[in-house]
Amino acid sequence: AFQSTQKHKKMSLESVVELNNEAVSFLDSKEFHKAVHASACAMEQFRALGLVASEEHVSFSQSSDHVDQCILSSDIRKDHSHDDNDNANANEYIYQRGIRLPLTISDPTVITPVLIFNAAVSHHMAALNHDSAISLELLNKAKCLYSIAYSEQDLDSNILFKLFIVNNAALIHKRLGCHEKAEQCLDHMLSSMMVLVDLGHCEYLEHIQGFWGNFQTNPNTATAA
Questions:
Q1: Helical segments of 52-107, H only
Q2: Is the pTM of this model over 0.90?
Q3: Could you tell me how far CA 182 lies from the centroid of its own chain?
Q4: What's the rounded Cα separation, in Å, for the pair 127 and 133?
């Protein structure tokens, strides 16, 4: 019975990962509402496995860079710094690719934040393709999801993942008129990016080249940069 339960859980976990990766594929093809649905289904199925109680009560027991490793090992085109955003959002660089998970993964401390982040990106991008009240609702949902994905990350781990979150959160705060919060996010992001530059982490820097452009629309951080 125990082996049967474990086998079922493994199959269910694979289904969660497949749904997550399907959401990422929808983001890549700019089918944002399908991405929202797929990411929501992935989180619902994952929660049903009992590995995480809810989005609001995420607990990470270990400090690791496993989420960053998922990002770095993903099959991402090297020219992504130029092709992430369409012309409609040319004045801001949004990280909109999502993060794929390997089918063999079983660590909830990696799966949980990735599922939440991909749901946040899906809502964020769907919001930019909606008008008025629906857009505002989607943006606020994305903002909450980004906050949850970030809040329990260890201070010194997954720096690339946290940069993705802070960059996108800054752009949402700006759209919502929360300019002070946007500036705080950009200040934090600039400090982290400069650390990567100083350390010469070229592999990391390839993934965040487009972020530098976001400082040009903020006078304070642009001057600092």
A1: 66-73, 80-83
A2: no
A3: 17
A4: 10
